[in-house]
Design brief:
Bound molecules: adenosine-5'-triphosphate
Distance between the termini: 40 Å
Structural class: alpha+beta
Helix content: 40-55%
């Protein structure tokens, strides 16, 4: 097993062992690409959602929220283009009977070439040591140039074929690259076919007049159909944004990607409505703004990169992804799209209702342009979880597993631990716990030796452990231990609240934005 697979496996099993994520309906052997969040997972997920909401809605005076329904009138999806064009190209391996996304097979092939480039760079770095100039090496190494040209050629051909819907060429490409089934190694491929990703269901009580409806594949359309409701009732002036978080459903063709690609997932989306002609400026603004948001959380900058799209979705004028270095390589975490007036324009056409904005300044009516920021909450969870899970070797050579989540997003903020289960220590600890609970998600733990309890809290990312010992009986002090450096300090019981609050408050993060 490769290092990458090994570390991914560790992340999945840590998430399960510590109550973050379980396979859905596991007692029935689970259901592919659907997951449940456990008692710690739901706290972390709520905290990420809240951080996004506060920074997007509460801190921008021209952005407001919305909670639209999952089921929408089916014509919505005709107008948005999803009925006709929300497809993935799929291919079956005839021997293993496994189904794959044809474009993903090719992209994974290209990712391997990129890994080779990284290896070349690493080799050269080792060889030349301190004075190594990475940019110069990349621009002058003939081997790297060949790899880069090769990747570019493959991706250009893939994108062109997909744009033209030339599925035979996509199959040809897979065969000419010698791509084999990752499960069985077989190269016996079926034709490439398009597959619509929307889940449909019946709406209505009697089967005769039940209407076919879809589970929404994105939250964005709920925002577009409410554009005028919000603009009018909120007396909003352009530019302004509408944000919402909520479930979306896609019948994805998935192979073991944990919560990266799920059939039921949650999105956090914001549609920013602007005057036509200003969309380029706002697109750049949101691109930078969103990267800043990610960096505010404190993971290493090297984990993020932009990927500008060459192949654009049917509605987009410009688009990019913020990619994150997941355990299985750089992949899309968030999309930023300049969506033109495609959606509002089409909803006007299909509904026959005007969706124009009256501009008081220029005395004209027009359909606004839209810049969208769209991030998967579950992918954000995986990015933070995988980027924070560390194994550290301590001075005594033991290994400590610690989840170094951003402090204010940690599921449990403080654990109160009586050193032993007698001599009145549990009583003091319980009192502290009961007082702190009003403000922080706190835990009380008296089982096992203290060292073991510290490790348990480290593994789920708890920033502070407060230990009540015999000295607490005498002078009303406790020790407070910080997760990241394991340093302990003696403080007054009365100052625990302040000590925790000042380093945990989300305000610290938000002020950095
Ligand atoms: P991908 O190329 O990975 O399929 P996409 O380009 O289709 O993603 P968008 O339609 O732009 O994704 O959706 C916006 C965001 O929603 C993505 O950046 C991602 O974070 C999240 N997302 C999309 N599909 C899924 C999924 N199946 N499971 C979890 N998150 C998803």
């Amino acid at each position: 097993m490769s290092n990458k697979e090994n570390s991914f496996k560790k992340i999945v099993s840590h998430a399960k062992q510590y109550g973050f994520i379980f396979p859905s309906s596991e007692i029935y052997d689970g259901i592919n690409a659907v997951y449940d969040y456990g008692h710690n997972g739901v706290e972390l997920k709520n905290n990420i959602r809240e951080y996004w909401w506060k920074s997007m809605v509460h801190l921008n005076e021209n952005i407001v929220g919305l909670d639209a329904s999952i089921l929408m009138h089916p014509t919505t999806w005709k107008a948005s283009g999803h009925v006709d064009a929300f497809n993935d190209p799929l291919i079956d391996n005839k021997d293993s009977k496994k189904r794959y996304r044809a474009d993903v097979l090719v992209e994974d092939y290209v990712a391997k070439i990129e890994e080779k480039i990284d290896k070349e760079i690493l080799k050269a770095h080792k060889k030349f040591g301190e004075g190594f100039n990475k940019e110069k090496f990349i621009s002058t190494s003939p081997k790297i140039a060949t790899y880069q040209n090769n990747s570019k050629k493959i991706l250009t051909r893939l994108n062109k074929s997909l744009e033209k819907n030339d599925l035979e060429d996509v199959k040809d490409l897979i065969e000419s690259l010698g791509i084999s089934c990752p499960e069985s190694g077989s190269k016996n491929w079926s034709k490439v076919k398009q597959f619509n990703l929307m889940f449909s269901t019946k709406f209505g009580a009697s089967s005769d007049n039940a209407m076919d409806v879809y589970l929404r594949p994105e939250t964005a359309q709920g925002i577009f159909v409410n554009f005028l409701n919000i603009q009018k009732s909120g007396r909003m002036k352009l530019p302004f944004g509408i944000a919402q978080t909520g479930k979306a459903f896609r019948n994805e063709i998935v192979a073991r990607q944990f919560i990266f690609r799920m059939k039921e997932f949650e999105q956090m989306e914001m549609q920013f409505f602007v005057k036509p002609g200003t969309q380029k400026k706002w697109y750049s603004y949101w691109k930078e703004n969103r990267l800043k948001w990610h960096l505010s959380l404190g993971l290493d900058k090297q984990n993020y990169r932009f990927h500008d799209h060459e192949k654009l979705a049917h509605y987009a004028e410009e688009a990019c992804d913020i990619e994150f270095k997941f355990p299985f390589g750089f992949k899309e975490l968030e999309g930023i799209h300049s969506r033109t007036n495609f959606d509002l324009g089409n909803h006007e056409k299909f509904s026959g209702k005007k969706l124009k904005y009256f501009d008081n300044d220029s005395n004209e009516s027009y359909v606004p342009y839209v810049v969208e920021t769209s991030i998967g909450l579950d992918r954000m969870f995986l990015a933070l979880f995988s980027g924070s899970l560390k194994e550290e070797t301590l001075v005594d050579n033991s290994i400590r597993t610690v989840l170094k989540l951003p402090l204010s997003l940690a599921p449990v903020k403080v654990a109160i631990l009586p050193l032993i289960k007698k001599d009145g220590l549990p009583e003091i600890a319980k009192k502290i716990y009961n007082d702190l609970r009003y403000k922080f998600n706190a835990a009380y733990d008296e089982k096992d030796a203290i060292g073991k309890r510290y490790r348990r809290q480290d593994a789920l990312g708890t920033p502070f452990c407060v230990t009540v010992d015999h000295q607490s009986l005498k002078d009303e002090t406790v020790t407070i231990r910080f997760r990241d450096d394991m340093k302990q300090k003696r403080i007054k019981i009365s100052s625990i609240d302040y000590t925790i609050d000042k380093s945990l408050s989300t305000i610290n993060l938000l002020k950095n934005l």
